[in-house]
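Reply to dn_fold:

You asked what the input looked like. This is it:
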Amino acid sequence: MSDANAIIDLDLTVLAQETELSAPVVQAIALAASVVLDRLHPSRAIDPARVVQGSSERLATVRRVPVDAQARDSYGDPQEATEEGAEGLAIAAARKALDRIVFRRLPKGTGADYLMRDPAANDGDAYERLECSGIAEGSESAGTRMREKLAQLAKVPNQPAGFAAVTDFRPEVVAVHLARCSR
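and this is what came back:
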């Protein structure tokens, strides 16, 4: 990982290059994140952000993919856009803040959305789960949602450990919260 004080660049325009998932899928979730950001914070190509891990917080930026009328129509359901967009920012944060590469979508019932790995690890079976969630409206706090997601990860103990990521799109400075599931 790079300098702990450096600004984290969550660049959605190159997200497909940061994972081992299918490029069209990753491009779609990057677009979903950009549509949510466009709806809540119009007229910006780059959003101020922060990545929060426990009591640690790092400044970040979110670089959007271009959004047009077709993109807005494609993600006309705000809930779907928020869910998929949160996955995009979680994958970017996993790569940039945790130094993990997301490589597989998980089936329902595993307590998480994705599997990720440390690219520097020599153990080919050392995987972690990544559970993603997003908030774009309402009054629920990121802390409340994080507790729910960590409990969801813990409910499936026969799966690898992992992280929960909760993206709060609502504030002027978008926040991606990351927490490790402790067993």
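The first strand starts at residue 8 and ends at 11.
Hope that clears it up.
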